[in-house]
Amino acid sequence: MDVRLEGNRLTDNTHRDELDAKDAAALRDKLYNATIIERIDVNPDLARFRVKPDIPIPEFEPGQYVALGLGNWEPRLEGTQQEKVPEKRLSKLTRRAYSISCPMLDQTGKLAPVNSIDYLEFYVTLVRHASSPNNNPPALTPRLFCLREGDRIEVQKKITGHYTLGDVKSEESVLMLGTGTGEAPHNAMVTSLLAGGHQGRIVSVTSVRHQKDLAYTREHQELMRQFPQYCYLPYTTREPINLDSHHPQYVGKQYLQELFTSGKLASAANTDFIPEKTHVFLCGNPAMIGYVPPGAEPLESPGMLTVLKEAGFRDSTDAQGPGFVRFEKYW
Ligand SMILES: Cc1cc2nc3c(=O)[nH]c(=O)nc-3n(C[C@H](O)[C@H](O)[C@H](O)COP(=O)(O)OP(=O)(O)OC[C@H]3O[C@@H](n4cnc5c(N)ncnc54)[C@H](O)[C@@H]3O)c2cc1C
To answer: Tens of pLDDT along 231-289?
Structure first.
């Protein structure tokens, strides 16, 4: 495979030239073990990547994650922060963890749980710049977003993680709250519950800035049509209805904490989230989750963990059962 530099691929990474195309091709042959079989662009900064490993996918539980790796020699997307890769790291891979998402529906519109497909779907947001000047430039996503169908990548062999459904009884309720791509593991969990005949209420809530940041709307709507126990609730925080107080449908910024405490979430989901009967899962932005390590000061803006504790839930990284809140922080 050549180092291709056409289209939106990089033009300005001077360090890329330190590895010539032949060396890059040899490293790809040696280190990559999977192929991008499909890329679904949601918007320029958000995409679903379908990746097929060369060997069969090991068994895993919905909600788990795996690391994806790309060489530091790979080009970076134009319009992303530049990165100076030290020469000794140039031939190495950078790896990042990604929750395994799910296509949710097959070609015919029927439920497609993760264990029914022979590829891994990832739901990834492009990080263009480091969140603060003290942090390193984002390493993986500016390279990942250069890839197209047929390109190669590394998928680490071990699929892992404790953010899984555990023992959810059929009649119990499941509430999943995600920000942005934090919806990914929930998509896998939802389809698994539905495929297993779960009868209790399953509520998947996603908070995004804009409507265009919702990648699975069609799939969720179809699942709600087919499974009355399933409820998908998307909320935005940066649309005119959130920001313009003169807008006829003005609702203000819709943060999950407020939606929960005000009872709006329960009313939209048409169910009460009673701790004795409800399993809660939180995934994505650490500020939404709001984990406070033992002994640390409380947060200025409490996250969902605080809000849920006040409502009678208990947080846990591994304890399972109704009343427990499980969480996965993306950074
Ligand atoms: C268990 C686990 C599962 C993850 N699953 C996903 C996933 O399914 N999809 C996904 O897009 N990311 C996921 N991430 C984050 C992912 O591992 C990378 O950190 C992210 O893709 C950015 O990689 P990077 O090298 O480009 O930048 P990094 O140097 O890794 O991150 C730079 C900064 O980008 C921001 N950032 C990181 N991830 C996100 C995100 N998802 N949305 C918005 N801002 C972010 C943070 O401010 C972070 O400090 C997961 C992380 C963990 C720990």
So the answer is: 999 999 999 999 999 999 999 999 999 999 999 999 999 999 999 999 999 999 999 99
Asked if 180 and 284 touch (Cβ cutoff 8 Å), the reply is yes
Pair 179, 301 in one domain: yes
114 exposure class (CB count in 10 Å sphere: 0-12, 13-18, 19+): buried
**d(CA 126, ligand 1 centre) in Å:** 9
pLDDT band with cut points at 50, 70 and 90 for residue 18 = low
Model pLDDT for residues 49-69, shown as the tens digit of each residue: 999 999 999 999 999 999 999
Q: Is 121 helix (H, G, I), strand (E, B) or coil?
A: strand
**Rg of the chain, C-alpha, whole Å:** 21
Specify the amino acid at residue 307: V
Based on the structure, what is the number of domains in the chain?
A: 2
Q: Which of 99, 127, 238 to mutate to test the pocket of ligand 1 (most atoms within 8 A of CB)?
A: 127
- Spatial CA neighbour of 59 closest among 102, 97, 115: 115
Predicted TM-score of the model (pTM): 0.94
* d(CA 125, ligand 1 centre) in Å: 8
For 282, the domain range is 173-329
Q: Is there an atom of ligand 1 within 6 Å of 180 CB? A: yes
Is 9 inside a domain boundary? no
List b or e across 14-38, with b for residues whose CB sees 16 or more CB atoms inside 10 angstroms: ebbeebeeeebeebbeebbebbbee
Q: Which atom of ligand 1 is nearest to the CA of 181?
A: 9
Q: Which atom of ligand 1 is nearest to the CA of 328?
A: 1
CB-CB contact of 232 with 224 (8 Å): yes
Please name which of 285, 290, 287, 286 lies closest in space to residue 315, comparing C-alpha atoms: 290
